[in-house]
Structure formats: C-alpha cells, structure tokens
Amino acid sequence: MKRVPFQQEEIAVLRKAIEISEELISDYYKISTSEWKRYRYDIQSLADLQEDEIIDIAFAQIRRYVKHPQSKLRGSEVGDYFKICLQDHVIRKAVQRDCHIQMLPLAAYIVTHELIHVVRFAKFVQRFHSTKAEQEVEEARVHALTQQLLEGRKLEGMPEVLDAFRDCRAMETFRAI
Ligand SMILES: [Zn+2]
Asked: pTM score > 0.90 for this model?
C-alpha cells in the first residue's frame, strides 16, 4: 500500500474533525480546558509518525509511552502519554473506496473513537493491557459511545459513516512502549 501523507486540504479537514471531536468529548466527560492539559495525548498523522508507528491494517494506532518522548525526565511528571497515530493512507483509501463516505465525518468518527479510548485509559476505566475478550467488549462499548456522541452532531455525510463503521474491527491497534 502506498503511504502518502495527507495533503494541505486533507490536513485542514482533519483539523476540523479534531475540533469537533474534542468538543464532543469535553462536553460528554465534562472536561474543562485546563483539565484537557492534564490528559497527555497527541493526535498525529502520517508525516509526523516514526517508522514503527505506521501500520496498514487499521485507521490508527494508539501508543502508550511511559513518558512524553520529547520531555526531559522530571520527577514531578507522572502519568502516561498517549499518541494517537492516524494512518492517512488507510483513511484516504476508505474514502476513495466508497463514494458515500466523506473525509470530514469519517475523520470525526475515527478521532472521537480514539479519544474515547484515551480518556478511558487515562481515567483507568479500562486497562491498557487487557485480555482479548475484554478488548472486544471495550471495542463494542467505544463504538456505541462514538455513535451516541456523533448522532447528535448534525454533519453532512455523518449518517452514512455511522451506518458503515458501527462494527468496524479495523479501527486501531494498541502498543505500549
Ligand atoms: Zn477502538
């Protein structure tokens, strides 16, 4: 699979999707702007990924790092850092494959879904290392919540995305470092 990073226009759509998703998540979990800073995560796309953060089998990979890769070791800084690695080439392929699927609602679905995972890991509602059976239950739960949050967001093309991806098994992979 050819891995072409998002171009300028796609990046603009992704930014909009992230804005929509963060707003929905902060409303749902009642997270204030200052609290968001305590959630240590980044959302990055292909151009900013390391070789081993790139995959071809899912829309994203969630990496858990014990500390932020760019931060200096500081005793006061505890807590995990999550990196949502978006796989531009996989996302683009899904849009090209089906003319009913648009980039903005699909990206909003993916980012919302991944952020729900991250918030649930960060709140310790869900363990990062869990059994296959637990992971399947969690995945169904995160899909259901993603649907619930996005159903209320009137966005062109969203009903089609909700319909197509409610049981998608290739949303992400998980890796801890
Ligand atoms: Zn998932």
From this structure: yes
Q: Ligand 1 centre from 98 Cα, in Å?
A: 21
**What's the CA gap between 54 and 177, in Å, rounded?**
15
How far apart are the C-alpha atoms of 14 and 107, rounded to whole Å?
6
Specify the pLDDT at position 76.
42
Q: Match 């919302």 to its residue by tokens.
A: 112
73 alpha-carbon distance from chain centroid:
27
* Separation of CA 117 and ligand 1 centre (Å): 7
| Cβ atoms of 46 and 3 closer than 8 Å | yes
Q: Which two tokens stand for residue 150?
A: 């996005």
* pLDDT tens, position by position, 60-73: 999 998 765 565 55
Distance 77 CA to ligand 1 centre (A): 27
Going from the Cα of 167 to the center of ligand 1, the distance in angstroms, rounded, reads 10
- Residues 71 and 83: their CA atoms lie apart, in Å, by 14
Q: Which residues pair with 41 in a beta bridge?
A: 82
Residues with CB under 5 Å of ion ligand 1 are 139, 142, 171
Taking the centre of ligand 1 as the mean of its atom positions, its distance from the CA of residue 73, in whole angstroms, is 30
